[in-house]
Every structure is written in C-alpha cells, then in structure tokens.
C-alpha cells in the first residue's frame, strides 16, 4: 500500500534518531515526579512520551509553539507549559473540559514545585505563569481559523505551529490531518488516535463529509469498513494476550441476551455499558433490560442460559479470533492517513509506535513535518 515502508517505524527511538540526529535532549523528563491525584499512570506514560517529542520539535526549531486539539483536561499542554515553558493553546469542544483544565492547571501550578525533586531546573518564573498555556472552547473543523485563535490567545513568536492531538476521538484524528495539510503555518503534526466508533465513513451518497477513507488509493476502490470493523479496531489484543483483559463472561452473557432480544423483536435496542459486575446471566439480563417493559420470568432467563451454556468455549475462541483482526483494521485506518499525507506532498510523515500497548492500547502516532519559512 505504501510506496515507502520506511515511514512506518516500530519504535519511537528510531524515529527520534532519524529526525533529530544532532540533538542532545537535555530537557527534564518526569521520571522523578509523583503526579498522584493529577493523572493516572496511563496518562502519565502518554504525556511523558509526547512531552519528549514536543520538546525535540521545539528545541530543534521545527515549531515555535503548540496547538493541542481535543485538549481535554490539559494533561499534556499543562506539562509542556509548566515543565518546559513552551506556549500551548489547548482547544476543546467541551466547555466543561475547558473549565476543568483551567481549574486543574491552577491547582497544578500551585503544587508544581512539590512535584519536582530538582526544583532549580524547572521552577516557573512567577511572571510567566498563566501566560504560557491558554484554553479555549471551540469545535474544531477544517474551516477553523487557527491563526486568529492563536493570535487572540498566545503572545510572542507564533510563526510555526506544532499541531498536537492525544487520543483524538471521532473524526478529530482524521480532521487533524486535513487541518495540518491545509494550514501553511503548521509545521509539525503529532497525532494519536482514540476509538474509531464514530469515524464517519463514505456512504457513497456523500450526504455527509466523510473521514474514512482519506487516501485517493482507498477512495478509488470504494473501500468500506463498516461499524463492526471500526468497533473491533479499538480492541486491545496486547491486553488480552497479557491476560489483563481476558474475554470475560459479560461478553458471553451479552451474546445470549442478543439472541433473546432478537426472539422478542428488540433488534435495535441499545444496552450500553453495564458498570456493575453481574454474577449470573439472570442478573445481567435484568440489569440490561431495566429500560424495557419486557415481563420475563427467571425461569425463561435460566432456560435461555442453559440452552447456550455449553457454547461458552466456542464463543471465547470466536471472540479471540475476531480480536486478532483488530490490529489489521487499525493499521488500515492509520496507513490510510499516512498515505493521505504522502499523497498531499508531506514526505516527512511517519507512523510510529509511541506508547507501551499494554499500558496504552491506542499507541500509534502519526508524526509529520513540513518545511516552512
Ligand atoms: C478522548 S478525549 C482526549 C482528551 C485529552 N487529549 C487527553 O488525552 O486526556 C478527546 C477530546 O476531544 C474533544 N473533541 C472531540 N472532537 C472535537 C472537535 N471537533 N473539536 C474540539 N474538541 C473535540 C472532546 O471534547 C474530548 O475532550
């Protein structure tokens, strides 16, 4: 599919060595930090890696500042500003998230020196506080005027924008790539996608703008994945193989319930996520069916379970086989994006494993560079 397979790197260090050959990164990492209460160990792992690559982009002059789209609570942006004194504009469509980021960053600023053992290195000058990281609420599209947003919110030299996105959900990952290509002042892209459930596919009637496929290569083939495949793409084979996410009985209960719903003509009933752990199929079904007015006896539920009980091993085998397809589907989505970057003349574009897949299953990043000014 790709003309140059070198653009797919299995390891971030290979990419860093290739892109930043002569840079001796002297920036401090967060290894000595205790972020207890401020982020989970998973998030700390992710922001540590993205902090490293962002600093390399900044120190080598590729970028003058960053825009973090889908900034959320500002886990990454706040650390880039506080630890490295780099300007960041965080944009999120959710006002609640923006407010939460402002609140969180204020708290983090106050506690900052306590997090850092070697305080002399990273102490933030008082006058710089609150000016380096700004948050705005805005629903980002390809038509967003980033230049204005940056000028309105950040100060000093903002000529080369680094576009960051950590776990960009829905269409935001693909949209980031279009935004990067379209904006002449954006010189670097680092994007890690999230789930693909809400990725809009080409429906052929072109009723809605679509974000898969992006590349001419797949578009010309009218390539389609469908919802089931997109949902499957977010399954973590690594976690399952690592036994931290064994196929559990809930999935089996859910399958039996589907047969039951079909029997009662509830074909499109949305169960949603059931948070509590259920000890039996009866308990699972009762919790799941709360929203319906189906009147079912325990006997009926029990006999339904007994009918399929013997198929559990076959179900688990099927579940695992299906999960083996997940990496292939995710690769296809990400390679399509890489291909699109290539087709649009962005030759310095790379797909690289950035995170530990057991710690953080959505672990692949698209990194791209443009030479400007
Ligand atoms: C999975 S969260 C990730 C948040 C953050 N980057 C992190 O790693 O914790 C994705 C975020 O993207 C935001 N988002 C989704 N689509 C967006 C859009 N078109 N414009 C701006 N924000 C968007 C959501 O509100 C959400 O906060």
UniProtKB/TrEMBL annotation:
Highest taxon of source: Eukaryota
Residues in Methyltransferase domain copies: 42-201
Leader peptide range in chain numbering: none
InterPro entries noted in UniProt: Methyltranfer_dom, METTL25
Pfam family of the protein (one): Methyltransf_32
UniProt-listed PANTHER family: CGI-41 METHYLTRANSFERASE (PTHR12496), METHYLTRANSFERASE-LIKE PROTEIN 25-RELATED (PTHR12496:SF9)
Protein name in the entry: Methyltransferase-like protein 25
Species this protein is from: Agrilus planipennis
Highest classification ranks of the organism: Eukaryota, Metazoa, Ecdysozoa, Arthropoda, Hexapoda
């Amino acid at each position: 599919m790709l003309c140059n397979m070198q653009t797919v790197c299995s390891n971030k260090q290979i990419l860093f060595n290739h892109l930043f050959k002569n840079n001796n990164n002297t920036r401090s990492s967060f290894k000595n930090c205790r972020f207890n209460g401020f982020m989970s160990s998973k998030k700390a792992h992710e922001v540590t890696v993205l902090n490293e690559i962002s600093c390399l982009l900044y120190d080598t002059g590729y970028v003058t500042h960053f825009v973090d789209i889908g900034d959320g609570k500002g886990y990454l942006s706040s650390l880039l500003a506080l630890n490295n004194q780099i300007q960041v504009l965080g944009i999120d469509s959710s006002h609640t998230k923006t407010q939460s980021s402002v609140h969180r960053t204020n708290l983090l600023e106050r506690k900052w020196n306590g997090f850092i053992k070697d305080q002399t290195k990273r102490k933030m000058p008082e006058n710089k506080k609150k000016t380096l990281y700004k948050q705005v609420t805005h629903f980002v599209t390809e038509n967003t005027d980033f230049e204005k947003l940056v000028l309105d919110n950040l100060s000093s030299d903002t000529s080369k924008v680094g576009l960051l996105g950590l776990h960009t959900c829905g269409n935001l990952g693909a949209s980031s790539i279009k935004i990067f290509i379209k904006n002449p002042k954006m010189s670097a892209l680092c994007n890690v996608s999230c789930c693909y459930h809400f990725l809009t596919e080409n429906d052929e009637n072109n009723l809605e703008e679509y974000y898969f496929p992006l590349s001419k290569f797949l578009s010309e083939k009218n390539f389609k994945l469908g919802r089931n495949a997109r949902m499957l793409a977010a399954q973590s084979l690594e976690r399952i193989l690592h036994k931290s996410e064994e196929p559990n009985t809930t999935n089996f209960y859910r399958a039996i319930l589907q047969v039951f719903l079909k029997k009662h003509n509830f074909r499109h009933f949305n169960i949603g996520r059931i948070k509590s752990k259920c000890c039996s199929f009866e308990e699972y079904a009762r919790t799941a069916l709360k929203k319906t007015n189906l009147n079912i006896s325990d006997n009926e539920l029990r006999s339904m379970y007994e009918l399929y009980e013997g198929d559990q091993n076959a179900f688990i085998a099927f579940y695992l086989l299906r999960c083996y397809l997940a990496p292939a589907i995710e690769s296809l989505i990400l390679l399509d994006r890489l291909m699109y970057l290539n087709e649009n003349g962005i030759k310095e574009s790379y797909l690289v494993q950035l995170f530990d897949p057991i710690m953080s299953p959505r672990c692949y990043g698209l990194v791209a560079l443009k030479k400007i000014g």
